[in-house]
Amino acid sequence: MADRLEIEVVTFTASEAAPVERLLDDLASPESEWARHGPDTLELDSTRSVRIRHRQLRAQGNVVAAATVTQLFSDRRRLPDLVLFYGCAGAVDSADVGSAFLVGSVSYASLGTVEVMQGSGQGEVATLKNKWMCHADGADVDPLPSMTFTHTLDPVPLDLTIAGLTRCHVMATDKVVRVGPATVPPVPGRVGPPHSVYEKGEWSYSDALAYTVDQSAAPVLVEMEAYGIARAAAALKLEDRVVVVRIATDDLVGHATSDGAQEDLLMRGRIALLSVLHAAIIPRPGTK
Fold first, then answer.
1. Is 185 exposed, middle or buried (0-12, 13-18, 19+ CB in 10 A)?
2. If you placed Cys at 216, which of 42, 88, 128, 169 could pair as Cys (CB 3.0 to 4.6 Å)?
């Protein structure tokens, strides 16, 4: 085990940053062995030396998130042992609102078409080109791959089962989505192996959500950064050290009325963040 554990917690908005700052303050209570060092760093010098640094990046959208994460870590001589992203997400299932999730995989749904609404002469309709999400008949490209987070902490495996968080799949996009999945997912024209093939065309966001839910055995959340995080982490050779924790703060269909609870749910969700930090800092039985 390394003598010093370096952890960086990354947030993208002020609402996401506030719970992290509260947690660091909680840990640095007067009777604690933790101590604040500067405005963004917490250190523990006990049986194991640990430093936690909070990075407030103020970036949203998958492309901007990827660029910002790359800028943050690309010129480091030593990369952190663990990079922990904390933030909010929309829940496809309204019953998941208020729950904390560990992102296990992420796919991207953003590349598509915006055109004038037929028959109106004005107004717009946005659709997604399904060839970027699935294997489509006659497509000239392969779909963008889903990315996974393997959650290992070299040289000690990171056992996140003790954190007790449910793993989820994220459908990452770059828009605020206020629709639910279609009642019936898109039907493939041919079923694999090696994979199903769909008729090439334009999908609505409801179609894309239904397809994603149909393909995933885990709960599905929607947010705007996880795909960018995953691609940047892969480019930086950081993917084994990245953990993404999402609090389902919003109901997609009821998004217009659920925003008010977002800050409160994120603040309460800092307990989930603490559980992951505990899993990283306290070694599993049998490790040295």
1. middle
2. 169
